[in-house]
Amino acid sequence: MSLRDEFICQFRGQTIGNINNNSSLEEEFQNGTLRPILKLQNDLILQIFNSYLNQNKNQFINLSVDKKMNAIDNSISKDSQLQNIYKGIIIALFTSEEYNQYSTISSGINKRIRTMLIERIQSQLQYFE
User: Fold this and answer.
1) What is the reported pLDDT for 16?
2) Which of 67, 71, 112, 118 gives 20 to 30 Å between its CA and that of 60?
3) Side-chain half-sphere of 64: how many Cα atoms within 13 Å?
4) Residue of 50, 21, 27 lying closest to 116 (CA atoms)
């Protein structure tokens, strides 16, 4: 393991969630890699979405809670530029081995990243008020 990989693993912290013999590769990747990265990057994730709202969704604050939830879901699901920004800040904290794993199952992992981002941002709506 390279010095960079060792640093990243220590910097990110421990696995979040359970990993056992019945876990799929994607589930192991989610709990061992994605969850710690998303937790570490939480403040940046919120700042990026806030900037996105300031540039694109001026009326977000005036929406009902349900419409805010839908706006978050639609923004992350449909805006490929926003998705790429988020994927970039997440993939940047992969180790070399994790990137190799990611490249073989990227479609499923990207879907998990989108879902986890949506849930994370929706659960912190108070940040945008």
Assistant:
1) 74
2) 112
3) 2
4) 27
Which residues make Cβ contacts (< 8 Å) with residue 46, sequence separation at least 6? Answer: 121, 124, 127, 128
How deeply is 117 buried, as exposed, middle or buried, from its count of CB atoms within 10 A (0-12, 13-18, 19+)? buried
Q: Which two tokens stand for residue 79?
A: 């805006």
Using only the alpha carbons of the chain, give its radius of gyration: 16
**Average pLDDT score over residue span 106-121:** 95
Amino acid 41 reads: Q
pTM (predicted TM-score)? 0.88
84, with CB counted inside 10 A (0-12, 13-18, 19+), is exposed
Residues 42-59, mean pLDDT to the nearest whole number: 91
Which has more confidence, 56 or 38? 38
Could you tell me which of 122, 100, 95 has the C-alpha nearest to residue 37?
95
Nearest to residue 127, comparing CAs of 16, 17, 52? Answer: 52
Q: Give the closest residue to 71 by CA, choosing from 10, 128, 1, 11.
A: 128
Number of H helices, E strands in the chain: 8, 0
